[in-house]
Structures are given as C-alpha cells and as structure tokens.
Write a structure and sequence with these properties.
The chain is built from 64 helices and no strands. The protein has 1115 residues and is an all-alpha fold. GO terms for molecular function: fibroblast growth factor binding.
Length: 1115
C-alpha cells in the first residue's frame, strides 16, 4: 500500500512537472493577453486545430505558485464554484471529470465548454504528455508492440495505452492511463485514429459534424452512439440502411470493447442511464462491467427510462455481434475459449467466431459433452443466455425476418421459426429453465408445489413441468410458456441436456451423428430423436437397440411430447394439411392426434404413415398417451399397478384397462380413451401390439394382403374353426396366436363399434331404435337383438349371424358373461367355454341363481328356440332327424333369417310320435320341459296366440311365475280360443304332453307323490310314466291323490276333445296317436284279439271252402 501511495505521488509530481513545462513554453511563446479572453479562446481553437499548442493556450494569465489551475480560469470559474466541490478545485483532472459528468439539467458556459475541449485535446496530443506517458509506462510500452511503434506527437501513444489498459501491469502506468481514459472517451476525436476511419460514415449517417467545436461534450458521446445504431441497423438489414466501411466498423466495435469494463466510458449510455443507475444500481461499484450487468437485469422494469432502455439495447446488440464488448464475459471465458478452440480467427473481431451465439454454442457443447467449463464462465453464459431469451430484438436474424415477411405468409412462419430455433439453441433454456424469465415467472407457483423436490435450476424441472401439463396443478400461463419452449426443444434433441448426455453415444452409433457442433442445417427437425425412438422399442432379434439409460430417456420424452402434436416435428410437418382439413375444431389437449387417428383412412399418404407409426408405438407403450394414463389412474392403481410399474410395456397395460373397462373405478374420460384406442386398433392389426407379435407370421401365411384388424380376426378365427370341425386335421394357426385371437374376439364383443361391418350395416337401425342407448357393455347389440323383428333386412341378417356365433361360443356373448359372471364362477367353473350357456341353463332354476342372470338365460333360451341353428347342441343331436322329418320347412327357409321355431315344432311332433333318434329325442325333451314352464320359450305358440294369451290368460302372464300356468290356462280355455293357429298349437301341446309327463309341469306337480309311489320303477320318457298313471287311475284298488286324479281326468277329457277336433290325418298319424295314447296297452290288446279272431275265422272258413272244393272235384 505504501508503494502504491508513493507511486501515485510520483504520477502527480510528473503531471505537475508537465504543467510547469507547458507554462514555461507558453511564456517563451509570448505573454498571454489577460484582458482579452476571447482572443485567448480563439487561439485555443487554432491550437486545437493544429494539434500542437500547449495545454495552457487560451488560459488566463493568472498564475500561482502551485501552477496553472483550471478552476481559476475566468471562463470556468463560476461553473466550477457552482458545480464542483471545493476540495477538487486544486486538481485539474478532478475539475475536468466533475464538469464532464455534470447532470443534464446543469449547463456550463460555452466559453468554459470550449476551454475544456482544448484542454483535453492538448492532454492527448502534447508531446510533453506523451513524454510523461513514456516515463511512467516505459516498461509497458516496450512490452506492447502495438504502442511501441506509433507515431509520436499525434496523441496516438496515449490512446494506444488506453486501448491496451487491461494488459498494463505497472501500477504507476495503470493509474496514469485510468485518469486519461475518461478524458479520451469523452470525445470520439480523442480516440486514436477514430476520426480518420469514421469521418465519412459520420457525415453519411448525419451523426454530427466533424468540425472542431461545433458539438458539446454530450453530443460527442452521441456521435459514437449514432454510429453504433447504424451498425446494428445494418446487421438487422433494416430498409434504407447505410453500409458502414469495414475500418469504421472495426473502430466502433473496438471502442465498444474498450468501454466494456466501466460504463462511464460509454458516454452516451452514461448520460442516458445516470439516473437509472442511481435508482437500480446505487450500490454496484463501477468497473469490470458490473454496472452494465446490473442495468441489463433491470432493463424491463417499468420505472426504467426509455432513453436508458434504448441505450442498453444498443449495447446488448453490439455484445451479440462481438462477445468481447462484454468485459465480464470475455474475461471469465477467455481460458475456456482458448481451451476448446472457440475463437480461432482472432484477426476478425466481427467474424463468426466473435459472435456471442457462436461462443455460447461452442461452450454449451463442451458442457454437454461432460467437459469442464469454469464456474465463473458458466455464470456469465447463464446471464447472457437469459438476456437473449428476454429480448428477441437482440437476435438480428429474427428482427430481419419479422420485418421482411408478412404475418399471413406461410414462409414467414418457417423463416421466423428457424431463427427462433437458432435462438433457443444459443440460449439452451433446457439446461436451466431460469434462462427463460417469462417461463420462470409464469411457472413459479407450479414449481413450488409440483416440483419442489427438485433442485432449483436442475434440467429435470422442465421434465417435471411437462409431467404436470394439463393437470390441476398447472396454471394456464405456465402451460402456454412451457409449450412454446418445448416446441423448439422437440426440434433439436441436443436442447434436452439429459437426453443428450444419456444418448449421445447411441446417436453416434445408430443414427450416425458425431457430436454437438456437427452442422445440423441439413438435418430435418427431430430427425435424430425419431431415429432414437424407432430403435427404443426394438427386440434383440430386430437388431441394434438403445442402451438402457437412453431408452428410459427416450420413453420419458415420448410420454411427455404425445400431449401435443406440435411437439412432434415430423407429425406436424407431414400432417399440416390434414390437421387443417379434418381437425381445425379440435383444440383441446390430445384431441388433434385422436382426430388424425379417427380419419386415418382419409389422410394423405405421408401423414397416414407417420400417424400409423405413432399409433403402432402407442400400442406397445400406452403410457405415451399421458392424458389417458392420468385419466385412468384410479383403475391402474386398483387393477393394473403391477403391469404399469413394469418399465417395459408390451401392450399389457392397455389389455388390463380393456379387461377392467367396466369396473366402478373407471371414469368416463378413461372409458372414452380406452374405447377410442380400441376403435383405432380396428383400422390396422399392427395397432394391437400383442396381437401383432403373436400372429404376425400366421397373418403373413394365412391372411396375406389383409390389413384391417377385424378382417384379420375373422380370417384367423374362421381358419381355427374349420380346422377344429375337420377332425384329425392339425391346427394351422399357432397356439400363441390362438390365445391372443381369443382375447381380441372377446374385446370386440364388448362394443358394436368394434365390429365395423355390423356397425355400418345397422347404423340406421341404431339411430331409429337404440338412439338413447349408450355404447359399451354390448348394450347397443343387446338393444338390436331385442328389436330384431323391427330391423332392416341387412341389419337383421348381421345380428342373426352374430347370435349364431355367440351361441356356438357363449364366451363371445358379452352381456351374458357380464351379467352371469358370478353365477359362472359358482356353477360352471369347470365347464368348457363352449358349454357355458348349457351349464347355466341346467342351473337356471337353482335357488342360488341370481335373478338377473336367470332373466338373461331365459332371453338366450327364447333366442335359441326361434331357430335350431341358434342351438348348436340341438343341431348336432338332430343332424339326421331334421332333414328327414322337416325338409319341407328347410326348403322354404331363407339364409340368415329365423325359422320362428318351425323346425323345433316339427321335431316336437315327431317326439310325440316317438320317431326321433335317441340323441335328438333327449334334446327335444329338454326343450319341451323348458317351454312347458315358460310359454315364451315356444316361439310358435307365442306367434299364433299373440292376441289370445292377453285376452284369456292376463293374470297368469302378469304373475310371471314360469311354472306352466299360461299353458295350463290355454288348455283349460281351449274351447274359447277362436284363432285356429293358436288352437292348433294348444292341441299340439296336449299331444306332446301324452308322450311324457315332464312336458306337463302342472300335472307332474300334482302327481309327483303318486309317481313316486305307483311308478317309481318305471323310467321316464316315451309316455311310460303317463301310462302308469292312467292304469292306476283305472285300477279301483289304487287310490290317487285328489289333485292328481282331478288333473288326470281333465287331461283325458282334453285328449278326447283333441281327438275329435283334430282327427288323425293318415295311418302314420293314427299309429302315432295309438302309441302315444295312455290306453295304448288296452288298444293294442283289443287289436291283437281282433287279429287272432280274424285268423281263427280264416282258418275255420278255409277248411270249409276246401272241403266244398274237393267234393266238386270228385264229381
């Protein structure tokens, strides 16, 4: 410290010596005229013009023992006493600084102003001052080649030392040059060579006159500011801009660079921002660019003055063109720039290497590669990245394209988008979200609540925000800001630092990229990431795969970006036209992609391809559908958490969601999303990942050229069925495919929309008959079944075909399986899927049977009895009987139309005649027993007696007891039935009841005890037990129960009436009646006696005739 004080004293003494020498020289040159200061000032002007006059030219003759003092000059005495503190009056440089830095509203006399100018000019040009500089800075000058060889006497030496002041290590020299710096920078004409290089440009740009003394000191700083603005305008290619000469450009940038450490040296900015500095940066010390940075940080404050804001913007734009204009950035990053070879072309300060953007990209690349960049430099980079993000006007390319293009022009968006993309690359907000101040402010509340567990500034903050996009925690402003930033990050994989770190080796190995600085101008947006995600889901058999860490990151980003089509560059680029054509009204989150999927067949080929690929990818990893996963969170937590926790999703999660689609935890959003995905899968079998992987080879072999999933399922299921029916034939469809095929068939049965052919055929019928029925749970299909008689021919045929398939495979009957799920577990857990309905029918009347399930079983029985083809068990059992006895009905039948129970009625009559095969008889017996209990199971009776049943048996119908009371009512009221068709059906029932007592539930119930006692040893069937009861009725030794006796007597009367009303139509019918008659044994006995009698009579008559004949011969 003592040495520094001593050195400072030496400098002051040298300056004092210089003033004395100047005074002596002036005395030799002639005595000044104290009485005429104006003449002295004029001589000062001339001296300034010559550049060789003494520093004392123009001074008054007042001389003191302490030397010449600026404060004592008549021209400035009043101003000095008014403006400058008294303690500075004895120091000419302090007075000069005081008068230079006065406030705007404080004016000084014109004579004083000019005196100051002459004084400053002489300080820089007088050889005596140069000799002081040579004395004080001897070692420094010899070490600086640039300053050692300059011409002496022109002021160049002092200006040169000012330019290289950062390289001065001598304390004495540094102190001297620091004092001189504020003087030099107060006027552009005092800067070494500046006027020579920029004289023409100043005049062309009308920045001010170069004639001596015509501008005051304030406007001198404005001249440089004017030139700087001209340089910025040229960079932005503003209309009518003037091209500044290259030498002047270098001089302007050099001045800006030299004034980078102390804002006092940028005279225009200093005066424009002096009050703002006191307001915002009062405690910020000058030097090392600290005041600049402080003012930059407050640039957008409301209280910041416009003139200061404008001056700061100009300074920032110069920094954007040459990073060295920022003292702190150039100093902090100098070693790193040299280390990573980021500024090779040092001879061109405005070359590409000098631009701030190049420096940021180069050093960011080093950071992303894991190389070390000093913390001080990274801090500076962070500040300037934030600066670029806050003010787009600092990027001249954006300003240029925004000014040139029209907003309505599509090219405008492309150009500006490209320049904004470059800006995002330069600022790299993905590495630290705080760089984007607008995002930081908008998302502060979300970060504090949803992402508080993540360290402030961590790149994972952006990932966390994306995960909470469109959730309750997200706010609208943050959502918009986040999507704006993600739009650009999604177009350059390097802007996601975590992805780049984890995947740079994979990208180089698989996608042929080679580092951060690899030029990417010719690479389509998002191309590298597209390459990565195509390899992320490859199996080992499919070739090269990503590393585990990289795959995890790729999946993370896919899950986040699927929220908005704009975050998928390839999708947005290829589908721009289709988005406008089909999806212009779909503005909600996730709706645009759903819309494209819905119109997949209508899209242009390029768009269809990219949407198809994305949908195929979703089928493998449904978590890409982030909105769907959020909506389905309750179901996933309850039923699918094990599958969801598995990082390698292979379609299991979606399969689980479909399987649990109708659980109580399933909300409407989730159900709609799952159904939508199911519908999309119908468009292409590739969209169902598990089905694709299980059946790919089978499809290529057995169903080539078929694309739609529903057609593939039909093709494969038909093949499986045919192979099954042909006994002994080996299955052509692989086992794994058959299993998955089963899953797909079951899923398709749940919603009519998953059966496109059926849905299309019945579209009009659904609108007419099932308009208010909700899709899902097979409710629309059930509605169509119930309205089957009212359907159009086309729809009716499709529904009949569907029912035929369901009866052959009850597991495909979604409503039956859903309603009877618990009953199946209770009664049919060991039954084969094909026999499920049969098992349920057998347990239908159990006390433990659920009423809803019982009702559903009855519905299916009614359906089965309308057509033998809907009863596969009956069809198989009566395969030979049907064409034998009912061929006439088959000849008149139409394909895919019900026979309304005609074939079954035919078989019932043959059952009564006891002419059926044993298997067929057994099945018809079951049908007769079931329909005897519930008249609705007899379609012909229901059809023929539509009017009679409500008229005659309304009470029995209303009771819904299903104990045969309706049939009993019709039998009792047989004489009241007017409709011939109905009467015939009732007579048929009577006829059938004679064949088996089980067919007559009322009689069987009444006589159950008597059967047990009287006919226990007689097997049921073929009228045997009925005959036993009739014989017991006639046997006076047997006492039957009164109710049984009464019912039997009623049946005999009914049969007698039936015989009269409907006599036998032929011998076979007569024989049938005899064999089915309860008095069969009696009738047969009487017939046998008649035959024997006839035989005996024949024998007797034959002998008589023979004897007569013999007598005649003898004659």
């Amino acid at each position: 410290t003592i040495l520094r004080v001593t050195a400072a004293g030496r400098v002051q003494r040298l300056l004092l010596l210089m003033f004395i020498c100047g005074w002596i020289g002036s005395a030799h040159g002639g005595k000044p005229d104290a009485e005429n200061p104006a003449d002295n000032l004029e001589r000062g002007k001339n001296a300034a013009g010559d550049g060789k006059a003494s520093a004392l030219d123009g001074a008054s003759s007042v001389r003191r023992s302490g030397g010449w003092k600026l404060a004592e000059e008549a021209a400035c005495r009043e101003d000095v006493s008014r403006i400058c503190p008294k303690h500075s009056w004895n120091n000419n440089l302090a007075v000069l600084e005081c008068l230079q830095d006065r406030k705007d509203e404080t004016e000084i006399a014109a004579d004083c102003n000019h005196l100051l100018w002459n004084y400053k000019l002489n300080l820089t040009t007088d050889p005596k001052f140069e000799s002081v500089a040579v004395e004080v800075c001897k070692t420094t000058i010899s070490g600086l080649k640039e300053c050692a060889g300059v011409d002496r006497g022109k002021g160049y030496l002092v200006s040169c030392l000012v330019e290289h002041r950062t390289n001065i290590s001598e304390y004495q020299c540094s102190q001297y040059i620091t004092k001189m710096t504020s003087i030099v920078f107060s006027d552009y004409r005092l800067i070494c060579g500046f006027m020579d290089q920029c004289k023409d440009d100043i005049n062309k740009l009308h920045c001010g006159s170069v004639n001596t003394g015509e501008k005051d000191i304030h406007s001198q700083g404005e001249v440089i500011a004017c030139l700087e603005k001209g340089l910025v305008s040229e960079a932005e290619e503003q209309p009518g801009q003037y091209t500044i000469k290259e030498d002047c450009k270098k001089a302007i940038m050099r001045v800006a660079e030299l004034s980078s450490d102390d804002f006092h040296l940028d005279r225009h900015l200093y005066f424009a921002c002096r009050e703002d500095r006191e307001r915002f940066c009062e405690n910020t010390p000058a030097g090392e660019g600290k005041v600049y940075k402080c003012l930059f940080n407050h640039k957008f404050e409301e209280s910041m003055s416009d003139k200061c804001k404008d001056a700061l913007s100009t300074r920032q734009k110069l920094i954007a063109q040459d990073y060295k204009v920022s003292y702190s950035l150039a100093k902090a990053c100098k070693p790193d720039l040299r280390k990573y070879r980021c500024n090779m072309d040092t001879s061109m300060p405005r070359a590409r290497e000098a631009k701030l953007s190049y420096l940021l990209l180069c050093l960011e690349a080093a950071v992303h590669r894991g190389q070390t960049v000093s913390g001080e430099c990274q801090g500076e980079m962070l500040d300037y990245r934030r600066m670029l993000m806050e003010d787009y006007s600092l990027s001249p390319e954006i300003v240029l394209h925004s000014a040139v293009m029209n907003d309505s022009d599509y090219g405008f968006h492309n150009c500006v988008s490209h320049q904004l993309q470059t800006l995002i690359q330069e600022t790299d907000p993905g590495a630290d979200y705080r760089i984007d101040r607008a995002l930081n402010e908008a998302c502060e509340s979300v970060i504090q609540t949803a992402c508080k567990h993540i360290r402030n500034g961590d790149p994972m903050i952006l990932s966390c925000l994306m995960e909470h996009l469109y959730t309750d925690k997200m706010v609208e402003d943050c959502e918009h800001r986040l999507l704006e930033l993600q739009y650009f990050i999604s177009r350059d994989w390097k802007l996601d630092p975590i992805l780049y770190k984890k995947c740079q080796n994979d990208a180089a190995r698989i996608c042929h990229t080679h580092g951060w600085n690899e030029t990417s101008e010719f690479m389509p947006p998002g191309a590298v990431f597209s390459c990565l995600y195509r390899h992320a889901y490859r199996t080992e058999m499919q070739g090269r795969r990503l590393s585990r860490d990289c795959k995890t990151e790729v999946q993370r980003i896919l899950h986040q970006r699927a929220l908005d089509v704009k975050l998928d560059p390839e999708l947005q680029q290829r589908c721009m036209t289709d988005l406008g054509k089909w999806c212009s009204e779909k503005t909600e989150a996730g709706q645009e992609l759903e819309c494209l999927q819905d119109h997949l067949d209508d899209l242009v080929p390029l768009c269809r391809e990219v949407v198809g690929n994305l949908t195929e990818l979703e089928s493998e990893d449904i978590q890409i559908e982030a909105l769907l996963i959020r909506a389905c969170e309750p179901v996933i937590q309850s039923y699918c958490h094990e599958v969801a926790d598995n990082q390698i999703d292979t379609g299991d999660l979606m399969e689980c969601l479909v399987a649990n689609k109708h659980q109580k935890e399933m909300n409407e959003k989730c159900a709609v999303g799952v159904t939508h995905f199911q519908l999309i899968q119908m468009k292409d079998f590739r969209f169902s990942y598990k089905f694709k992987m299980a059946c790919k080879e089978d499809v290529l072999k057995l169903c080539p050229n078929i694309k739609k999933k529903v057609d593939v399922v039909i093709c494969l299921s038909t093949t499986v069925r045919n192979d099954t029916l042909q006994e002994g034939r080996e299955q052509r469809v692989s086992m794994k495919c058959r299993k998955q095929l089963r899953v797909e068939e079951l899923e398709m049965s749940e919603d009519i929309r998953l059966e496109p052919d059926l849905y299309e055929s019945c579209g009009q019928d659904i609108k007419q008959h099932c308009q208010n029925v909700v899709f899902g749970n097979a409710q629309v299909i059930e509605c169509l079944k119930e309205k089957k008689k009212q359907l159009t021919q086309q729809c009716h045929q499709k529904v009949f075909k569907l029912q035929e398939n369901e009866m052959m495979d009850p597991e495909l009957d979604f409503q039956l399986m859903r309603v009877c799920k618990q009953m199946i577990r209770r009664f049919c857990s060991e039954s084969d899927a094909k026999n499920m309905l049969q098992c349920l029918k057998q347990n239908k009347n159990s006390e433990l049977m659920d009423p809803k399930c019982k009702q559903m079983i009855t519905k299916r029985q009614i359906t089965q009895n309308t057509d033998y083809r809907l009863n596969p068990v009956l069809r198989k059992a009566c395969k030979a009987d049907i064409p034998k006895f009912c061929q006439g009905i088959l000849n008149n039948a139409k394909d895919d139309n019900e026979l309304e129970g005609q074939v079954i009625s035919c078989l019932k009559l043959k059952y009564a005649d006891q002419r059926l095969s044993p298997d067929c008889e057994g099945q018809i017996s079951v049908i007769l027993q079931e329909s005897a209990l519930d008249y609705r199971l007899d379609p012909q009776l229901q059809l023929q007696c539509t009017d009679e049943i409500p008229r005659l048996c309304a009470e029995e119908v209303a009771a819904q007891e299903q104990t045969g009371q309706v049939e009993e009512c019709l039998k009792i009221n047989l004489l009241k039935i007017s409709h011939e068709g109905c009467k015939k059906e009732v007579l048929n029932i009577l006829k059938e009841s004679k064949a088996d007592i089980f067919v007559d539930p009322v009689l069987h119930t009444a006589c159950a005890l008597d059967i047990k006692h009287q006919c226990a040893a007689i097997p049921p069937g073929r009228g045997r037990q009925m005959s036993c009861l009739m014989e017991a009725l006639q046997d006076k030794r047997v006492r039957l129960q009164p109710e049984c006796k009464k019912r039997l007597q009623d049946r005999i009367d009914m049969w007698s009436y039936a015989a009269k009303v409907a006599p036998a139509e032929g011998f076979s019918d007569l024989a049938g009646q005899v064999f089915t008659s309860p008095a069969k044994n009696y009738i047969l006995s009487m017939l046998a006696m008649c035959v024997i009698l006839l035989f005996l009579m024949g024998l007797f008559c034959g002998r008589i005739t023979k004897r007569v004949t013999q007598e005649l011969k003898d004659r």
